[in-house]
Amino acid sequence: MTDTAPPTGAGRYAGTRINRVEDARLLTGGGTYVDDVSLPGMVHACFVRSPYARAAIRSIDTWSARALAGVVAVFTGAELNGDAREQWHTSVGRDTPETPRPPLAEGQVRFVGDPVALVVAENRYVAEDAAELVEVDYDPLPPVVDYTVAPDQAALVHDSHGSNVVGSMAGGQASFGEVFAAAAHVAGETISQHRYAAVPMEGRGLIVDYHRATGTVTIYAATQSPHEMRLFCSRLLGIPEHRVRVVMRDTGGGFGQKIMVQRDEMCLMLAGPRIGVPVKWVEDRRENLLAAGQSRHEHATARMALDDDGTIQAATIDFESDAGAYPTPWPVGTAGVVGALFPGPYRVPRAAFTARAMYTNTVGRSPYRGPWQFESLAREVLLDLAARDMGIDPMELRRRNLLREDELPYKNPNGMPYDSIAPLATFEQALEILDYAAFRREQAGARLEGRYLGVGVSTYVEPSTPGVGPYATEAATIRIEPSGRVNVYVAGGSTGNSLETTVVQLTADALGVRIEDVASVQGDTAITGFGVGAAGSRSASMTAGAVRDAASVLRERVVAIAAHRLETSIGDIELADSRASVRGTPTIGLTMGEIAALAYFDAYSLPAGVPAGLEVSTRYTAETRFIWVNATHLCTCEVDVRTGRVQLLRYIVSEDCGPMINPNVVEGQIAGGVVQGVGGVLYEHLAYDEDGNPVATTLMDYLLPTAGDVPSIEYGHIETPSPGPGGYKGVGEGGAIGAPAAVVNAVADALSPFGVRITRLPLGPSQVLELLTAGRT
């Protein structure tokens, strides 16, 4: 390759606030979601779901449902499950000890919402009516609901497993109890977080269209990973993957919930070939809250040893989480990451962790934006508690321990190799935006008036683009069409993360073409190279690498053709505005359309060694195993001590995600995550009663934050380039990771005059009043 290609990110589009190219379509109702797809002869599916958390299935009578006019088929586990073959997810690997997952429950149901039968009818209305006619004879059994005592219960969620402990993991250094014994101060608390969920705007859904004549399957899916779904379906049905096509069009949010194929989707894949016509299932909101997955239900005992000056000497965390009945992926892996990242962006010389996950008769744990978020919640809450106990300002305690740039690279005591981050810089910037000293003066004055203001902070570091397994590579194809317009093909699609826009920006810069001349084609396994999709905050860096590599090869060809035609040297060709011109003589040149016409229609006129056509496919492999991202979240609030209501006043995020491809997209991703984190602390609660019944299965019961509940977010940007392509880093998960601890610490600071210590979530008005009552007694 020549050096004619400018570095990705150095052009005229990357780094600017380009309006999202998808917005015109989405905001005018022109989007195409799964429920917008209608195929000839299509039928509709509905599930019969268990009303019991744990029960034996004595019998299932489907006669009345089958007899209902318009019903096409009714499947039970005995009829459908036998067709299921090997099940495992590419992203976690064949050898991961996944929980066996029957598509439909057989023998026993294990949570309220467990799919027991699948009804297929000419429309959804008939399918729902028929589902009510399916009679299931259950023998209720005592459920395992509380994960904290699940290991000691005689009842087992999975008899075959022999224990309610999914698995455990430990890491870090050997015992260093003498450090804690000699420490001037030891901070230790058990911190608990409640269960909440992703709640995407569009629930899960797919259409399975099996073609008997060709033995092929086409799936239209709301997914974050179409190629993963394709491989999974291939294995499940035992057919070659080239006979499976997955099409992902617009997807209304995923947040991790739509990465893995779940049991409901497996049922549709199995039923499709049986039915022989397209089968559609789109879950409603109740199903989504009932059966799509839980997250965040966990606790840990966290400890820190500090010297007289507040310098951290050691940190340990013993972490436990609720895995539900059918977790996916293996939850112990995520639990281990919580332990490994617990030291955070601080100078911690010694650390150790344990982690384990427990089965319960509740909906299975599924990935959710920043799945290791608890490490930041536990650490940052513990730091505030330690500062208060030691009489040190919580900001000053952090300042004394945060890593400085001159200390990098730095390997935390659990082996995490930090580099290219700026924790102290983002921290100081956030405090400067707030004017911390001024806030403390305002807070003191407000308390004299009987008003209680608080400020909270959270600083974290997280890995994005891990160079592990399938996450380590990404493909791109770029085609300059005969007209000179450009199509770029990438595996994943936009699920609200604006990948459609950023891909176009990167491609326009890399080829020197106008942005309006570029379009992206995404999420169709028949025409895009294999890729993991949107997961792990990897899209920006990995896609940038794939686009860079493909565009570099294509740019060489374009420059060579232009130089040959214009009878000048390659080094004298400049590409800009969809045109190749001679350096210093811009009037002499060729449009991209003219160059493309030569490449496609006049192959014999091309210079030696340049192939006909203008299409290049490449596969980028990550240049580093980890790209680290860091940020500081800071918020202020006012707590009404009479009602328990928490009102957020200001919310500030200073982040370091490297150079920004599009500041609008970066800030939008941060804002979305922040709102989810705020909702998780103050509003959302996927609660179960003691019998394992979910008590929040509609949006009347499951409270989401609205625009009026979150103040306008203020942003500060620090740019520390990563070692990856363009210096880019991920930004998708950080808002959800940083927000919870910042909000908890702000509320705790506001209530500190009452002796309140917050170690348990959520913090709805009733919980705040309980804390005040306890603090006053």
Description:
There is one protein chain. The chain is of the alpha+beta class. The protein is about 30% helix and about 25% strand. The protein is built from 19 helices and 28 strands. A seven-stranded mixed beta sheet has the order 3-5-1-12-9-10-11, sandwiched between helices. The longest helix has 28 residues. The N and C termini lie far apart (about 75 Å). The N terminus is likely disordered.
Would you spell out the secondary-structure blueprint of this structure?
Blueprint: H1 23-27, E1 43-49, E2 55-61, H2 63-67, E3 71-76, H3 77-80, E4 108-109, E5 115-121, H4 124-133, E6 135-140, E7 165-172, H5 177-182, E8 185-193, E9 205-211, E10 216-221, H6 226-237, E11 244-247, H7 263-275, E12 279-282, H8 285-291, E13 298-306, E14 312-324, H9 331-341, E15 351-359, H10 374-390, H11 394-401, E16 410-411, E17 417-418, H12 423-434, H13 436-448, E18 452-464, E19 473-480, E20 486-490, H14 499-511, E21 518-522, H15 539-566, E22 573-576, E23 579-582, E24 585-591, H16 592-601, E25 615-621, E26 627-639, E27 646-656, H17 663-682, E28 713-717, H18 734-750, H19 765-776
Parallel strand pairs: 1-12, 10-11, 14-15, 20-21, 27-28
Antiparallel strand pairs: 1-5, 2-4, 2-6, 3-5, 7-15, 8-13, 9-10, 9-12, 13-14, 16-17, 18-26, 19-20, 19-25, 22-23, 23-24, 26-27
Helix pairs in contact: 10-18, 14-15, 17-18
